[in-house]
Amino acid sequence: MSSSQPADIEIGTRKGTIRVRSSCSAQDIGRLQFNPHFGTYAQYKSLYSKRESLEQIARQPDANVTLAVVDEQTIVGFGVLAYPEASERWAQLQPQVMMEVKAIEVARDWRSKRVAGRILKRLMGHPSIEEKIAYMVGYSWTWDLDGTRKTAQQYRQMLIRLFEPFGFIEYQTNEPNICLKAENLFMGRVGGSVDEQTSKAFKWLRFGIDP
Amino acid sequence: MRYPKEVVLKDRTEAVIRPLESKDEAMISRFYAAIPEKDRWYMRHDVTDPLIIRKIIDSIGTGNVFSTVARVEERIVAHASLLMRGHGATRHSGRLRIAVLPEYRHKRLGTWMLLDLIQYAMDAGLNDLRADFVVGVEDTAIESARKLDFFKVAVIPEYVKSPRGNRYDLQIMVKRLHRTWADF
Questions:
Q1: How does residue B1 score in pLDDT terms, banded at 50, 70 and 90?
Q2: Predicted TM-score (pTM) of this structure
Q3: What is the number of CB-based contacts under 8 A between chain A and chain B?
Q4: Nearest CA of chain B to the CA of A208: how many Å?
Q5: What is d(CA A203, CA B73) in angstroms, rounded to the nearest whole number?
Q6: Quick check: B184 and A206 CB within 8 A?
Q7: Does A169 touch chain B if contact means CB atoms closer than 8 Å?
């Protein structure tokens, strides 16, 4: 973990106060525990439900793990911004230009309290964000449709509404996993300092074409 | 839904997909004039007729038809439509039609147009999409539709006649639009 701006923001809710912490270190995460609502359900599995997974990401260069915490000890929401795996298409844009919002998740019993937006705001506060192309991939099969009582399309729209205010735009891509379902979503945010050549390379990359 | 949508075709051509606009009348007319006669033969209407073109333009914003075009530079190279009943027993269903200039076929442009209309249909709350194809004439389009989870629901044998009088099967394909996890 090397991104800076450790800062907390507080969200007052009827259920209690949530503290959103940006750029958490592995040590910070190690002191916390997951809300039990993160887990495995009939149609849905939380992306991360073990501290170790988040700790591992927090140790990666430039990664930002942002947590929503209650009672100083329980994680009720998390967001992860990190470089893609080397094997992924998006890692081809070098040197380390693309960063993925790998996860934004709020425990079922703490949803509808605008926590996800606050987490995303903290993720986008990354000090190098204007030099990066941030992106998110929404695979419909990972969405908690039962828990949110939304259709896949409503969930997709919810994601667009969440990301758009932060400058993310829906992009077309022929990336095979994204193309598996029409409901899937790919959004990106090209930082203000990203040069035109890199933006163009990003466009080619979206369609699997070498520049 | 955000427009315009930028796509890059297999041969690196950049195209932009956006809704059909009233000002496109002359361009859409030129587009259909450039579609070979042998392809226009299988279309539902005589798209070289200015009245038909006017009808297409007049349908903009009516709610029953949503049309998009793909532009390369200043030229329309593809036109796609989603036709909706809006009432009655088939209000949950939409019908798709797509036409692409010959030189832009086999470059995945039709697939992008199709994908875009599928997303529009989902936003519009439709449950099913239907597309009809002439077997032996529109096989590439059948394959593209199949890749997007359209499946064959019926074939009307020897329903369509070519200009020379040869008969072809009409294949009806449907795609169910997933709404909940139970549909997956």
A1: low
A2: 0.85
A3: 48
A4: 9
A5: 17
A6: no
A7: yes
B9 interaction partners in chain A (CB closer than 8 Å): 207
Which CATH superfamily includes the segment(s) A8-206? Answer: Gcn5-related N-acetyltransferase (GNAT) (3.40.630.30)
pLDDT of residue B178: 66
d(CA B64, CA A136): 33
pLDDT tens by residue, B127-181: 999 999 999 999 988 998 998 889 999 999 999 999 999 999 999 999 998 655 4
- CA B146 remoteness from chain centre: 14
pLDDT at A210: 76
Is the CA virtual torsion A200, A201, A207, A209 positive or negative? positive
Give the C-alpha separation, B148 to B142, whole Å: 10
Task: Give me the percent of chain A exceeding a pLDDT of 90.
Answer: 69
Residues of A in contact with B4 (CB under 8 A): none
Q: Is A58 helix (H, G, I), strand (E, B) or coil?
A: helix
Q: Give the one of B9, B12, B122 whose C-beta lies nearest to A153's C-beta.
A: B122
A70 CB contacts (<8 Å, ≥6 apart)? Answer: A16, A17, A18, A19, A35, A76, A110
Q: State ipTM.
A: 0.75
Q: Tell me, yes or no, if A145 comes closer than 8 A to chain B by beta carbon.
A: yes
Calculate mean pLDDT across residues A24-48. 88
Q: Which option is the CATH number for B5-131: 2.60.40.4070, 3.90.1150.10, 3.40.630.30, 3.10.105.10?
A: 3.40.630.30
